[in-house]
Amino acid sequence: MSVGISALLVIVGAILRFAVSWSGNYVDLQVVGVIFMIGGGVGLIASIIVAIVRRRSQRAAQVYEERRYIEPPR
Hints:
The chain is 65% helix and 0% strand. It contains two helices and no strands. The chain is rod-shaped. The model has no long low-confidence stretch (mean pLDDT 86).
């Protein structure tokens, strides 16, 4: 999950939890909103951890190049 999708889940969950007053017979939208917010928070934390790990691995893979020139034959 990317940071954007995680933020979207948190926002949609907050809207369902706090702004929607409609309730169906078999679906409680407030509970669905809480589930979306928890899932978005977990996804946000996971995507940040993945980004940190990728950044560290790129920094560790520095390439050192040494060129040796050989004189052409005369």
